[in-house]
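Ticket 4471: requesting a sanity check on a complex prediction with LXAUTJHC. Repro inputs:
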Amino acid sequence: MGRPPNLYSFQSIDDELAPNLRKYVLEQQNEALKRHGVFRVAVSGGSLPKTLAKALLAPSSGEGDTVEFPKWEVFYADERCVPLDHEDSNHKLVKEELLDKIPSDMGQPKVYPIEEQNLENEQEVADQYEKLLVSIFAARDSVKLPLFDLILLGCGPDGHTCSLFPDHPLLREQDAWVYSISDSPKPPSKRITLSLPVVLHGAKIGFVATGGGKQEVLKKIFETEEGSKLPCGLINAGAGDKVSWFCDSPAVENVSFPRRGSVM
Ligand SMILES: O=C1O[C@H](COP(=O)(O)O)[C@@H](O)[C@H](O)[C@H]1O
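Returned structure tokens:
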């Protein structure tokens, strides 16, 4: 590993974590817009969308602090193979927590959910999503991997992220951009997920992990050999300082890993 990941710890989610997450996301947005006029971001489900909404729906404080939603392209880091209005759908969650709450004068991002045909065939869903990514990320030139400007991830209490689970054979897969999983230890069992190489290739990777329920796994990830082999640990090891963790105090109370101050 080159330089270590950035670990931020905040006392309050509303007053500190969310404004810092906003600053971080908008830094990536502004850089991406300068680079290629579009901001391509992959988002997760779980607890992330709620915190992300707190960050992004706050009023702008001036230049450089504007969320330019119409220039965003939103993809899913993982998705469950269920209809888009099913309560297990990550898209439904992101829609309800964030997209539906965007004031109309801000405009909407372009969102890329999974296709709803053939949901019973998870491999088909993964293939369709990969085809979509190829049409966008490899429209002009062939590329080995899609380059997301930002990938926003959660961390499960078992150290999983996206739908990449501890000790699962998917962690060793290198060839496809999107994989299906039919034996997810966390229900629902059928899902699709970005591959580990795709996540590691992201320009920036931001984790959001909050609450005391994450403390044990974060201690493991940041302090132990065993934890460095968990999916989140593999991303820390493989992507180094491209990775930033946004945590609250209860999540990292006993984690002895150097913290950074604020993003500001
Ligand atoms: O199943 C999933 O879990 C992870 C972690 O969720 P959290 O609630 O512990 O933050 C999430 O990032 C992923 O998108 C989701 O499908």
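Notes from triage: The first helix runs from residue 13 to 36. Leaving this open until the requester confirms.
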